[in-house]
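hi got a favour to ask and not much time before my train. below you get a single protein, a line of residues and a line of whole numbers that encode the local backbone shape. could you go over both lines and see whether the tokens make sense for that sequence. a few lines back from you is plenty, here it is:
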Amino acid sequence: MSRNIETILDKRRFVIDTVALISYFAHIFNEPSKISPKGLLYIDTAFKHYDSNYLITIPSIIFIEIFDKWFRGNTTANEEFRAKFIAEVFNPIRASPNIEIRELDIEVLESFLDLNDQNINLENRDKIVLASAVVLKSPLITSDTKIKYYLEKYNIIPGIIS
């Protein structure tokens, strides 16, 4: 999504992972929230307040992860969930001036390649999310223990909100 660059520069940016997005929309996914009230407040403020000082960045890989887990088969229940997801999750994301979807670009790919610790062994999707936060120099909203451990060890972004 394109955004006015002056507007983006005035905002505090946060990158979120799949768990954070699912936690914010817990009522849609029928999943308990795994993100702190503070993290949920940042996301909620960005969604609900047009003039929010927060900008939420969602790496596009998050949607692939959601599609892999939640959009399997051609059942009626799946089609109903797909329609609900589009109406209550995707469309509000697209409509919000404070939410952006970040594509996988060369900067993120280069950062992704630098995230290499055989002992922690992050999944590729998690590495893309983390690489996005590194490139954007932004805090990450996540409850993923491997990512948190990696960040404790390497301290490569401004912070983590779990």
Q: What stands out?
A: Confidence is low (pLDDT under 50) at residues 1-7. Strands lie at 12-16, 54-59, 99-102, 140-141, 160-161.
